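Please review this one:
***
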Amino acid sequence: MAAPDGIISAGVLDPRAAEGNAVLAGCARVAQAALSHDAAIIFENPVPRAAGPHAIPGRERHASAWDSSIWQRLVTSSLGDHYVDFHQCSLQSPASATRGPQKATRLACDERTLPALRRRFAHCQCD
């Protein structure tokens, strides 16, 4: 991906991308602190749509938190690449008359938490 931290136009990063990066950097610091104390972490964000199994045509330049250099540093430094993708619509009550949107979501976690997340969410898929 050409601009994983946001597209720079005329030498300036869009303020919305800069704000999102700042929030993500804060989340990464909290995760790093938790991991340094052997605590479990779970991080939720929409799945990436630029490429991969959840790609949407026309979103090839769409950067997600998962693509960012901030997230990649956390994965490389201590977290590892442990995640589960699922559809939030599958979590609604079966008695519900209507289903919400598919909303494909990714949960990233530490290695110890991964088996529990897979048991709970890996089967949660909607048509």
Observations:
- The mean pLDDT is 88.
- The helical segments are 15-36, 69-79, 114-121.
- The chain is about 30% helix and 15% strand.
